[in-house]
Amino acid sequence: MTQTTSTGPPGGFLAEIKDAVTARAALLVLGVLALQLAFITSYIGAFHHPAPSEIPLAVAAPARGVADRYAEQLDTLPGTPLDAHAVKDADTALAQVRDREVDGALIIDPTGKTDELLVASGAGASLSQAVEEVVGRAEKAAGRSVRFRDVAPAARGDARGLSSFYLVVGWCVGGYLCAAILAISAGARPANSARAVIRLGVLLVYAIVAGLLGAVIAGPVLGALSGNIMALWGLGALVVFAVGALTLALQGLAGVVGIGLAILLVVVLGNPSAGGAYPYPLLPPFWRTIGPALPPGAGTYAARSIAYFRGNGAGGPMLVLACWALLGSAVTLACAMFHKGKVGPAVGSGIGDGPQDPGSSASASDR
């Protein structure tokens, strides 16, 4: 008589599900669902209804009183699409556009009925088009016409000025994937401060290489960006290291979950608020506020400054990236010292975070 042996747990199909899907796995799946919904909400929320709001605009005229009057009229347009101010002359207005102090400049010709509007499509085609549209309507309502002059045009190979954004996105992806791979191969948390230093060192080498290759591809290879290659290389290395260090820090604080938190900050919140497709003055208030403080936004603004504005305006964003890099490195080292001997598991190991036996999986996970 043949006997049948069951390899599954007793209790039927429900027990099989409980055995196959652990509580930890169920929580991680719920976390992925939350991250997915946050992604949808963030991107659609940022992009579904772009509208100009307080776009900085310089106004110049031979007589300062004329410029003051025009600036005041533009400031009172419905919905406040412009933040206009008078400057002493056309040269000052041009300098402010090229220094990224303003996003456009209107040069008034009081002897005629045609004025000149200076824009900079290198800062984003959607932004320069918004300035042209708003000022064009205002001029038409005043019985005047306007001609446009692009004083910082995007490169021929840079469609709508988006290459800087996509370059920075690629650098950011490399940063958090490099940090995540270290968690996959050797535990989410480093075993000690020496291991943390090694991870940061590996990340630094990767960042230097990735920064150079990204700048070369965007510049000489594809001809999308014409900025200083050395400056773009430095920016790329800083972006990759900042995002990677942030990811290592979050892994040190939260274990494997830290990778998801890094994606939340960099991808879900950072990319739509980066000013890529729609620069800051066209974004809703929440995204316009957080964008400059996150690596994708700081990197995108700095990349455009290097490519089209001789580096003007890049100092602040570079400082933001440096702060993320220093903070991430410090937290990574602090977590390694605090959790000494209590490493997190390698991603996909099926082991929960928490203290491990130093003689078994804890030491093995970081070999």
Task: Explain what this protein looks like in three dimensions.
By secondary structure, the protein is of the alpha/beta class. It contains 13 helices and 5 strands. A 5-stranded mixed beta sheet has the order 2-1-3-4-5, sandwiched between helices. Helix 5 links the parallel strand 4 and strand 5. Helix 7 runs antiparallel to helix 8 and helix 8 packs parallel to helix 12. The radius of gyration is 26 Å and the shape is elongated. The two termini are 51 Å apart.
Strand sequence of the main sheet, in spatial order? 2-1-3-4-5
**N- to C-terminal distance:** 51 Å
- Taking pLDDT < 50 over at least 5 consecutive residues as the criterion, the unreliable ranges are 346-367
Number of strand segments = 5
Please state the structural category: alpha/beta
Q: Please, what is the average pLDDT?
A: 88
Strand-residue proportion: 5-15%
Number of helices: 13
H-E order: HHEHEHEEHEHHHHHHHH
Largest sheet: 5 strands, mixed
Percentage of residues assigned to helices: 55-70%
Global Rg:
26 Å
Query: What is the global morphology?
Result: elongated
Per-chain topology:
Layout: H1 12-20, H2 23-47, E1 55-60, H3 64-75, E2 82-86, H4 90-98, E3 104-107, E4 114-119, H5 125-141, E5 145-150, H6 163-186, H7 193-221, H8 229-254, H9 257-270, H10 285-290, H11 295-308, H12 315-338, H13 361-364
Helix pairs in contact: 2-9, 6-7, 6-8, 6-9, 6-11, 7-8, 7-12, 8-9, 8-11, 8-12, 11-12
